[in-house]
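Quick one, T. Sequence first:
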Amino acid sequence: MTGSQGQVVFYSLSRKFVQEKKAPPKAQEVIYYSLAIGHHLGVIDCLEAKFSCPLAAFRAWIAQLPAGSSARRKLEGVDRFGEICIDSSHTHLLANALSRAAAQMNAEQQDCNQQLLSLLQSIENEPAIYLMVRRHDD
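Structure tokens:
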């Protein structure tokens, strides 16, 4: 793990586009399909920062989750790898763990909790959305 300096930033997919100047009208269906299947076809994801917290506060927040739990291990990946991706396969796991741990959190941690829970709900509403969580060291 790195030192406690730095920030953890939660980014959300805001839009996708195909790296193509003009597409003929007949290709619109192909472009739509390309957006659905991914980056290897020249699709670029635009991520928008939704919220951030100091690295030390992030560590204290996720320490409120049960040690060894899958949810805690997932979020600890920010420290281990520098970034993690949260998609629709993680929403229930994280939402349940965060909701259960909320009562023991301080006000700052509960604020982060609410923001992340809101982002998880947006993924539930639109499964194509995902989050990228990155550690930015000072």
